[in-house]
Design goal:
globular; mainly alpha; 4 strands
């Protein structure tokens, strides 16, 4: 159902983009819009991962300089049957994480130092499993295409006033068509982009819980990340709001309710869905994890006042995932 809904929303976004081109320049405008969309999507396909990682000053880490963090991702990727993604660390106090890349063979996952400091190793594993679920489902590519089309629609809307009034553009709706292109189309594109993002988050939560083996780990992690995101401003995300849908929790300030204007579902709804999975897991236990984390019970208490297994600067120390 989620895959079909996402496909329908993407089809609507594409049709909307071509419709805006038609409203501005008739048949010729629609063809130009199609060429622009193809060019932007091609560029995004090859460069989206580098762009978003650069926006957030992410630094690639290895097993040598971040053994615990890297080991968690490696074990989870093995469990999920995915190629090992590149692993990045973001020097940012706000706890958060995201995945990017055009396919599983060219994927990258990134976590902030704030996330590694404030979450238990089990919760970090659940968060990274969620991100690997996005990689497995190719959500990163879907969101990149959606963001590109939404940006292009907004750009065409800005051009509408300058080019839409030309009588030789074959615009059948005249000034009304220009107004639709300027106001209604960009607004509709924003709504569709947010709807796709929220649909994919629920699917990644469920798959992430299956990969890590415990839905309560992810539920606890989401609660801590959401509280941290409200208290700590992510300046890089504020400067680049288009990247917000990639994060596990909305990194922008002033966001919250599960409504048309939210890039993510409400945290409460996501936690409730994960808690509802507990009985399902009891009836059909997941396969054993390739790590010793299951030997340590979930830590539900905040970690701000206690040492992190990665240290205050993000450097790793021996922990239960070693």
């Amino acid at each position: 159902m989620n895959v079909m809904r996402t496909a329908m929303l993407l089809a609507f976004m594409t049709a909307l983009f071509m419709g805006v081109g038609f409203l501005i320049g008739g048949t010729g405008g629609m063809m130009i819009a199609l060429v622009i969309a193809a060019g932007m999507n091609l560029f995004s396909y090859w460069n989206s991962d580098k762009m978003v990682l650069s926006m957030h000053h992410a630094v690639e880490v290895s097993e040598h300089n971040a053994p615990e963090y890297y080991g968690i991702v490696r074990d989870l990727a093995t469990r999920a049957g995915l190629p090992m993604p590149k692993v990045y660390l973001i020097q940012n106090d706000q706890p958060n994480a995201f995945a990017t890349g055009r396919n599983p063979q060219n994927a990258a996952v990134a976590a902030s130092t704030g996330l590694l400091q404030r979450l238990s190793p089990q919760e970090v594993a659940a968060v990274m499993a969620h991100e690997l679920a996005h990689v497995e489902n190719r959500d990163t590519l879907t969101m990149t295409i959606t963001a590109t089309l939404a940006g292009a629609i907004s750009m065409l809307g800005n051009f509408a006033m300058f080019f839409g009034g030309n009588r030789e553009n074959n615009n059948p709706l005249g000034f009304i068509g220009v107004l639709v292109a300027m106001i209604v189309a960009p607004f509709a594109a924003m709504i569709v982009q947010m709807a796709i993002s929220r649909t994919r988050e629920y699917a990644a939560d469920r798959r992430g819980a299956q990969i890590c083996g415990n839905p309560l780990w992810l539920a606890s992690a989401l609660d801590k990340i959401a509280r941290g995101a409200k208290q700590i401003v992510n300046e890089d995300a504020e400067r680049n709001p288009a990247s917000a849908p990639l994060f596990i929790i909305n990194p922008l300030s002033g966001q919250g309710a599960d409504n048309l204007f939210s890039t993510h579902p409400s945290t409460e709804n996501r936690i409730a869905a994960l808690q509802a999975m507990v009985e399902e897991f009891r009836q059909t236990p997941p396969a054993p994890r390739p790590s010793r984390a299951s030997e340590t019970p979930l830590d539900d208490e905040p970690r701000e006042d206690r040492p992190s297994p990665w240290g205050r600067d993000g450097a790793s120390r021996k922990g239960p995932w070693a």
